[in-house]
Amino acid sequence: MLDRLVARAAQLPAYGELRWHANHSSRIMMRKGVLLANGRSRDGGVSARLYHNGAFGFAAAPADDEATLAAVIAAAKDNAEFAGGAAATGPLSSATGSGTYDYRSERPPLSAEERVDIVRRLDEAIRARYPGLVNVDIALSSHASEKILANSDGAATCSFVPRAALVVSMSVAANDGIVELYDILGGFGEIEDQSFDAETIAPWLEELHEHLRRKAEGGQCEAGDHDVVLDSALAGILAHEAIGHTCEADLVLAGSVAGDNLGRQVASEKITLGDYGGRGPDGKSSFAIHVDDEGTPCRDVAIIENGVLKNFLHDKRTAQMLGAEPAGNARAFSFQDEPLVRMRNTCILPGADKLADMIGAIERGYYLKRSTNGQADATSEFMFGVNCGYEIRDGKLGRAIRDTTISGVAFDMLKSVTHVGDDFRWAAGGGWCGKKQMIAVGMGGPSIKCRVTLGGRG
Amino acid sequence: MSALSDDFLDSILARAKDAGATAAQALTHRTRYFEIEFDHRSVDLVRSTDNETTTITLFRDGKRGGATLNGRRPEDVEAAIAAAATAAAAGVADPANDIADAPSLPASDHGPAAPDRAAMRGQVDEFLASLPARHPLLRLRDSLYTFTDQETEFANSRGLRQRERRGRHGFRAMFMAKDGALTTSFNAVGASAFSPFASLQEAAGVGRLMAECERSLERRPVAGKFVGEVIVTPHCLMGLMPSIANALAGPALLAGSSPYKDKRGERIASPLFSLDNAPRSEDFSAGADFDEFGVPTRDLPIIEDGVLKDFLIGYFFARKLGMSQTAGARNSRVRGGETSLADMIAGVKRGILFSRFSGGAPNDNLDFSGIAKNSFYIEDGEVRHALNETMVSGNFQQLLQDIHAVSKEVVNFGDCAYPFIAASGVTISSK
What we know:
The complex is a heterodimer of chains A (458) and B (431). With 458 residues, chain A is of the alpha+beta class. Helices cover 21% and strands 40% of the residues of chain A. Chain A has helices spanning 2-10, 66-83, 112-129, 202-217, 232-244, 249-254, 316-322, 355-360, 410-413, and strands at 16-31, 34-52, 55-61, 98-102, 135-151, 156-174, 177-188, 224-230, 273-276, 301-305, 308-309, 330-331, 340-341, 345-348, 364-375, 381-393, 396-401, 404-409, 419-420, 425-426, 431-435, 437-445, 448-454. The radius of gyration of chain A is 23 Å and the shape is globular. The N and C termini of chain A lie far apart (60 Å). Chain B contains 9 helices and 22 strands. In chain B, a hairpin with a 4-residue loop joins strand 21 (403-412) and strand 22 (417-429). The chains are: A alpha+beta (458), B alpha+beta (431).
């Protein structure tokens, strides 16, 4: 397939990419012992994207024979001409990536029965060990993105990037209603590469249940501005939502406040934050990328260095518009999707502080342990949900809090950072980011002591 | 009875039987999609895609397994049938697992079959040309004018056959305002309709939202913390209603986590609040004539004058929970009321016009907390200023009870329709 795409790409009438792309996924989901999902899916095809006068034409179809390939190239050309770009622009970056990056598991594949058994045994173990639960959800899922890409500048690459996740959710009845808590295990690789059996993860389940028990006995947090310690499990979503999105160059071009702050101090000197190719600075992220979907080889991008905003994230077009070099951030979710400016492995680098010292330094505040969903904004105002946390009183952990949302203006909040932990961690299970298309991302960081706004009725 | 377009699904069912299925079903979506993407300067992408996805579900001795493929390559079809068969063999037997026995509907056809691309392009060009005069400070990104033609076919081994086609236009605008160093939050709106939008400037209330966006360059938080009133906009409701609908649906009832699980026939909302599920409504271009089990959908009231009339129960959960099937597709409509938006605002002593919720997903108890984005402070019946760094916290069960006005104005988004609702008892706070 790569040879066919390379040959066709060399004959494109303008700059363009050809991509064969298939997503493979599976999901087994059990609720209270009832199997609600048990299946696999595959979604694949070919696409062509051509550049004409500053605009793109894109076309895709669910096959990969020569006739289909010729048809999508012709349709992309028509679409590019129909887009009728505003004017001729300068050349796009022609840096070309190459290579094969195949992270398929080398272990023997688990049978369908073995996969269902992982979930069934976990369900039985949890319900036997914790009989008072109102509900137990267990979801075992996998996703792999398989791509073959060539562009008219000579890029030629293949990749297979998998990851797998196990999500366990428990619910219990409290005095004032149902209280739920979930957590995620897994990350890079296929299900075969993970250890999801009930015995191995028993300590993790015990911890999850203990946090749930304490949460059910806990209360609403006090709304307002507070000193907090964000656990390393939250640092990834902070890096992603608070800073990463605001520094995507398409958002900068739209007017994001990051555009007014390049070269300025936007965070404490303790903060260094980047978006990394490969599997991140430690090679252990839940996601891998070496060549992006425009054929650009991936380089690391220092977004904030010692508190100073240094760089934005680009695709070829935004780089051309802002006079930068793309570093491999153009990514597409499926064969039907065009590449967009996306994050890859985004993280805050660790510092030297200890988690216990951070908690000990707070007289009255909160220790926030786990996040749910998050959202960013052009103003750098971010939010993310928190489903597990504790009060801090006089430097010690107190009662648990119920679900809340934290928010802040990133370029203000990051200046309030006084401690950066030595306990770096990638978000378990990997993250998903929605921006026209969904995309798999890695995100991580250390514990951080800072000041944020909490929502709540307390 | 629906005539399928060819024998593709029948051949899948036959091969599923050969693979050991005691029953089987197959659902195909054939989609042709056309998109013009633009920012405030110009069109930056034109995209057209074709796809055909087929979900095969095999049943074997009360167990169920599935596989989804796209395209029709024989080796992919064979692999999908084999994967569904092995998944079914590995599954957990449940008496609720079965295919449906329901009437086959006549094939239906909704909306245009193909877009008028030149006309769509003309509308986008006109929209962009007039934008600087209408909203000089506005910046658009990732905004779309689209056309989707989707044909859906269903077959099961009990002889049920369904077929429908929907052609619909879609519009999405994502925008912010910028004036020097002043920047607003992003806002976004999207809607679909069978016909081309008469005016992109007014589609789904975008004109009002763009004007509000430009008035949001100067923002400040509310002072301190108070329990006040909220006027929840249709656009904000679009983000909030799925949490309430989920609490009324089969999965939450099975979990036992729904606060409404024992409330059928009881008042769970203000008498001013009525919620219908209306997948057959001709107003909803993104409706559905039948569900994923091939069962014909129907419109019915879920909450009527504040009383919970029915849950949202699909085919499997109806069998599992021993309840009647009420819904296999979801298209929510909150009925309009008798108060104008202007009168609602005039009646607010202290509160906010709550235009977008950016917060953590509400929990099972329907507690919520999040930022009030694109929102405005109201005091003594007047909209005073745009908000930033302001959080709202409350509980949806209580919020539904505390509704005291529902607007005459209703925005139809193509898959749902909502009015403005006014309610009290929400905690509004800043730093």
